Each structure stands twice: as C-alpha cells, then as structure tokens.
Amino acid sequence: MSQQASKKLFKHLSSFQLGLLFALLGILFFLAISVVNMKEKVRVVQTQLFQINTEIQQQREKWGELMLQKTHLESPAKVEVLAKQKLRMQSAPKAFLTIKILPDSNTLKPMLSADSEERQD
Prior knowledge:
Layout: H1 3-11, H2 15-74, H3 76-86, E1 96-101, E2 108-113
Antiparallel strand pairs: 1-2
C-alpha cells in the first residue's frame, strides 16, 4: 500500500479510533504468537506423555516377569532342588502318622513312626 492509500483508509478515523485499531492489532499479534507458543508446548507435553506411557508399559512387563520368576523360585520343588544342590541338604525321611485304638481304652493315641514298616493298615 502506498502512503496516499493508507491516508485515505485512515482519513475518516479519529485518533482514538486509530489508537484502538493499533491496540487491537497488537493484541491480535500477541494472541497469534501465544497460540503458536501453546501449540509447541502441547506438542512437547504429548511427546513426554508418550515416553512415560511407553516406560510404564515396559515396567509392567518387567513386573510380570519378576512375579513369574518369584512364583517359580518360591515353589516347594524348586526350594528343595536348590537346598540339595547349593546347601547339600538331604530330604527328611517320610514320617507317617499312625493312630492306634487300644481295646482297653476309648481314647485315640497318635504315634509318629519314621518308616512305613511300622504302619498298620
């Protein structure tokens, strides 16, 4: 635009109206810059959110693996194998609980026997 065209455009406006126009244009410019700035911040936050969600998923998978390992290592069979291998422990002999009913008494007397030969059927 030439100066004459701009003078014609603003000729019918008062100084108050011109001031208001420039103030509104300044506010418009400020808001446009703010929108661009806010879009950039949103993009950065979305990227961080994606990274955090990915890390959460990885941690959940690792937690699942650890719980599976824990369950496996806590099983009685695994504990017995490790005790025999690493600590050189031996299994205790199997004990049987035998209950004998004596004819002269109506009471039950539990007896613990170490071998199966003493078991009474």
